[in-house]
Amino acid sequence: MIHEIFMPALSSTMTEGKIVSWLKAPGDKVEKGETVVVVESDKADMDVESFYEGFLATIVVDAGNSAPVGSAIALLAETEAEIEAAKQQATQTTPSAPAATAAATTPTPEPVAAAATNGSSSAPTQNGRIVASPRARKLAKELKVELGAVVGSGPHGRIVAEDIEKAAGKTPTVKPAAKPAAPVAPAVAAAPAPRAASAPVAPTQPGQIKPMTTLQTAVVRNMNASLDVPVFRASYTITTDALDKLYKQVKSKGVTMSALLTKAIAMALQKHPLLYASYVENGIHFNESINIANAVAMEDGGLITPVLKNADQQDLYSLSRNWKDLVDRARSKQLQPDEYSSGTFTVSNLGMFGVDAFDAILPPGQGAILAIGASRPTVVATDDGLLGVRRQMQVNITCDHRIIYGADAAIFLRDLAKLIETDVQSLTL
Description:
single chain, alpha+beta, Chloramphenicol Acetyltransferase, 7-stranded mixed beta sheet, about 20% helix, CAT-like_dom_sf, Biotin_lipoyl, lipoyl, EC 2.3.1.-
């Protein structure tokens, strides 16, 4: 029997996927549950596993190309004798709807801490499967390196291409220095973990039309959807002297400004459930959790919004650790869909780039997004009628006017300012 491997729908908004790499070549034996291809969804790379045992007869969509969700990307023959018949069938294959014979899709295993060396294996595993990047797996096969004997240097011990090259006695490929992904949320102090090697980006030429990445296409789709929502915007100036002082106290303990701002916003939202609610047909959906999404720009274009779930219930130090982990995995495209699509309130911070103020575009499915500008020394009139210098930042909120009104946003901003200016120590409790 010949089975079709379909382009899976890896998220509710995905309409097409891009083949990152094939882990099997035509003619290779495929075990049931074995990963055969890595597909780039909107914002992450995901493994696609086979439901059946057999032989990869032919590849319909090569690596680097895209295909609509539900279309056949390869054919799997149950026996070697059926391979030629599958190749002939491939020439007549047209996109079809997904069926039960499609390859199963599972998220790329979340990196786990490296296993302690006990004389058997030094590689981290999850569910019995070694955690390694797709390129590392391919390279290990080419160089005949046993994955289980390799120590990973990637995030959480994940094996990357450079590890395979070292294990094979080769000098790791020297790549041009890439600029780190610039988080639109406040920067994470720690350096990004090593990543799997990626192809250098070709320089653009005048008049050239450069195709968008899958991530950029997803951003376009979301922005177009936001045009259907009536919004309003409100601004507020917040004095940050107390916040800056607290940051100096906790920075040495690994706390980031991202965590401080997220914690402050989450605590302010506790009193304003309408601000993290969302519009549904003729109604308001009040979300159970305060999940703060922070926008992060990706180095190859587009942006992603890692989510700090239940931010109001986490302590400051946990938030910082979780944020660093999310950013590391966002940069290596290892976030699971629920980790970037479950936000109930979004924060975008261009203040780190020196931007004084800006308006953010409301993400689909949310009620509000807060844009944070830079904190700068400002001459102000004090309560005693004198002049003084205070550090101040401007925040702008964009709200869905179908469910949130001006007064709702104004009171939230006032409460957020009060917390930051006079009750900032409560963030450490």
